[in-house]
Design a protein that fits this description.
Elements lengths: L24 H13 L5 H29 L4 H12 L2
Length: 89
């Protein structure tokens, strides 16, 4: 290897894109407080976590919509059972 050549790391880090967003002032303040309260390593890390959760939720809702379209919505008894199992309601 040449004397000035740099070794490349064999571990790959995920690629990141820098985005600029605009939020209403009150929401921005609340997001900062939440990130600090949850000891997020950074505001970006907090946003990334919350956006990943939102994307996953959207995907699950799409699956449920597809199931409703194919099989119809669940009957009230099935809904009550699911609430009991999931939430103890």
């Amino acid at each position: 290897m040449a004397p000035n050549a740099k070794k490349r790391s064999r571990t790959r880090t995920p690629a990141y894109d820098k985005l600029a967003i605009t939020l209403p002032h009150e929401l921005a303040q609340e997001v900062r407080r939440e990130a600090e309260a949850r000891h997020a390593p950074s505001l970006s890390a907090y946003f990334a976590e919350k956006m990943a959760e939102a994307v996953e939720k959207d995907r699950l809702l799409e699956i449920l919509d597809e199931m409703d379209a194919k099989y119809g919505p669940p009957d009230p008894e099935a809904t009550a059972w699911a609430k009991e199992v999931l939430h103890g309601e």
